[in-house]
């Protein structure tokens, strides 16, 4: 269920809040909070409701059709598995979308989700470095990659698809892990750079 009927081709960024069993939890509180902030920032905002035990495919189709830039969800004990299942399937279809998650069943218990999507490693590292150095991440750059124990960047799946989706969202630069195939990648409208280390990649990503 959407909060408003927006133009499906609106140029404004779009966010979706995933409310699982909303009538039996406090998900509505977070949904209203996100909606207020998003709309004040000029975003289109939608709420998609799920009921535990029902098929997620119809909701998945609706959310994918919106092509959101951000998907948010609140995790509770009785909604966690449904929400995680939905988000994993959604990220497989739209890996470029930012996921914002919180709630009592997410704090300190997000290892399984992050391990399933190692491509977020580089983006998280860049965000931390941005905060530490008080330098913003380049707004025109999409970046992703897995970070190894020695600080090396590892290639992830669907690199070409992620870059193409980034270009569709308006990014003009992409930063990916260095690999044999990285130099061969070409996406119209996107300048692609690669790096083999997180230190080098962060230096490239910060303004």
Task: Describe the protein's architecture and organization.
By secondary structure, the protein is α/β, with parallel strands linked by helices. Helices cover 36% and strands 20% of the residues. It has 7 helices and 9 strands, in the order βαβαβαβααβββαββα. Strands 2-1-3-4 form a 4-stranded parallel β-sheet, sandwiched between helices. Helix 1 (27-40) links the parallel strand 1 (14-20) and strand 2. Helix 5 (121-133) crosses helix 7. The protein is globular, with a radius of gyration of 18 Å. It starts with 13 loop residues before the first strand and ends with a helix. The model is unreliable at 1-8 (pLDDT under 50).
Element layout with pairings:
Elements: E1 14-20, H1 27-40, E2 44-50, H2 57-66, E3 70-74, H3 80-93, E4 98-102, H4 111-116, H5 121-133, E5 141-143, E6 146-147, E7 153-154, H6 159-168, E8 173-177, E9 191-195, H7 198-205
Parallel strand pairs: 1-2, 1-3, 3-4, 5-8, 8-9
Antiparallel strand pairs: 6-7
Helix pairs in contact: 5-7
């Amino acid at each position: 269920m959407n909060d408003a009927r927006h133009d499906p081709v609106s140029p404004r960024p779009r966010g979706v809040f995933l409310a699982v069993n909303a009538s039996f939890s406090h998900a509505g509180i977070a949904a209203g909070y996100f909606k207020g902030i998003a709309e004040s920032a000029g975003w289109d905002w939608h709420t998609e409701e799920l009921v535990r035990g029902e098929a997620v495919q119809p909701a998945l189709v609706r959310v994918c059709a919106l092509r959101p830039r951000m998907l948010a969800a609140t995790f509770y004990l009785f909604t966690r598995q449904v929400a995680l299942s939905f988000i994993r399937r959604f990220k497989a279809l739209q890996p470029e979308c930012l996921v914002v998650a919180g709630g009592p069943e997410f704090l300190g218990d997000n290892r399984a989700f992050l391990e399933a999507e190692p491509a977020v490693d580089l983006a998280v590292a860049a965000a931390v470095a941005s905060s530490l150095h008080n330098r913003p991440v380049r707004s025109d750059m999409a970046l992703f990659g897995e970070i190894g124990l020695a600080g090396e960047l590892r290639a992830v799946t669907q690199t070409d698809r992620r870059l193409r989706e980034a270009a569709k969202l308006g990014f003009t630069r992409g930063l990916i892990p260095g690999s044999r195939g990285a130099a061969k990648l070409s996406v119209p409208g996107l300048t692609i750079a690669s790096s083999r280390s997180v230190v080098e990649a962060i230096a490239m990503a910060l303004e």
